[in-house]
Design goal:
By secondary structure, the chain is α+β, with helices and mostly antiparallel strands. Helices cover 36% and strands 23% of the residues. This is Lycopene beta-cyclase. InterPro entries: FAD/NAD-bd_sf.
Length: 585
Amino acid sequence: MAVLQIQQFNGFVNCESRARTNRGRGRASTTVCVQTQVAPSRTQRIMENISVGGEAGGAGGAYSYNALKRLDNIWSNICTQPTGPQETQKIVSRVSGFSQDYGMGNNLVGTFDIAVCGGTLGIFLATALCAKGLRVAVVERNAIKGRDQEWNISRKEMKELIEVGVLTEEEVEEVIAAKFNPNRCGFENLGDIWVQDILNLGVSPAKLVETVKRRFISLGGVILEDCSLSSILIYDDLAVMQLSKGDILSSRLVIDAMGNFSPILKQIKGGRKPDGMCLVVGSCAHGFKENSSSDVIYSSSSVTKVADSNVQLFWEAFPAGSGPLDRTTYMFTYTEPQSTSPSLEDLLEEYWKLMPKYQGVSLDELEILRVVYGIFPTYRNSPLQAAFDRVLQFGDASGIQSPVSFGGFGSLTRHLERLSNGIYEAIDGDLLDSDSLSKLNPYMPNLSASWLFQRAMSAKQQPDVSPGFINELLHVNFSCMQRLGDPVLRPFLQDIIQFGPLAKTLGLVMLTKPQIIPSIFRQVGIPVLLDWSVHFFMLGLYTFLSAYIDPVIRPALEEQPLKTKFQWKRRLEAWRYGAGLDYEL
């Protein structure tokens, strides 16, 4: 009888055993040990040959191979966790009575109007609030600094930072590292659509965050770096935060800007699995000779298999500000978290195969400067309502970003004026109960309607439509939007869904290509379409209310009691932003 012995060492496998002879009543066996080193993946070889500097907080701020494996482990755990609530760490607790009745010891750092947890994007809101005269502190577990990899954005979003007092016009120009036009949308040889001034700026997060950080400090803001949140006790008068170094900080309001993986967010959601996920990989490389235009969204192939999962791969590409031959290319896909979902490393292996053909270069001709990657969970019930008194989610933690976008900087700038004004009024009126705070993250039908688009752009694992259907659907939609003009196409490309443009596009699609409609039903499913129909109706209703009822109600608000005025102002904002009417060409 053969005895099989298999031993696993670091990078090696020992195996192979053979039976020899019977001697008396015993059996002898000999094990032949063969050592074979497991070859590193192409991704590992590339990443370990890149010099990685200090990593920044926030999505996309880490570049090392070890950080990739850590994030892949998080993604794997999400994919394999069961559905439904999970046991999570309790960060926020409610305590009856006033904070002075309990005492806070000698480790009290200070008492503030607002404490912002998470500084990479939280520093923008903190600065806007500080500019209004509020006492604000920012708590960040690392150093507050932006990543090296640029954020791509349109000038309109940057102007919104000027309007709320976060940046000056001169500072905006200083943080812009690259400008480029035109910008392409294309889908697998079906034709390209070219636009101008969409995501056509490359902004240096390192310069931007440092500039905003300096302004925040100059306005009297307080920063606590290398300091993470341990717990929050909510009293009747204050929120008291216990920090990792033993310090205590109290504030009237805590703003959770800790992103998609905030421990407070995890507690509120009970560790529930996300409804969808956007997986992003890419690189910034030197050696692109054709480097004057960008791709806003591009697909070079139909549904394909990566690891054990069907995926529809999309691309973005932008000139980088580090040099005329430097270019950033992203490959991304939408999926549901499940055991067969590809890992980020699986996607990167596919990326190295496909990117050279997509960009018309050889990988050997490129110098890889950095590798980027990220996972962006989305939930159908977004934005997130306030679950506690004195605690409000902001940015990615609130789910205010579109489910078809990755990264929340664009949505942050869009909502910054609305939120900073609303938070100021909540502090001023002491309207810090969960019901009042929920008015700041209201239901927005245009955000909920975007769920259909993510589902339509996700490959099914048991497809009953052709592999090229997603590209065909996107091409016909984009072609119809182009025919309808900038008022229809441009808002959509900036993640703004409006009732009129959407209704016109759907109508034109049905007139020009009615044969695609049965495939849409098969791709997204009847339940999703019925759910989307409700949000589409609400989108129309919000558009009507904002356009015709808002002008009637608004003049009468000044005569109302403080709480009534606060609630109605938030309702009017929900109509306007929920209908996408805050967008102006």
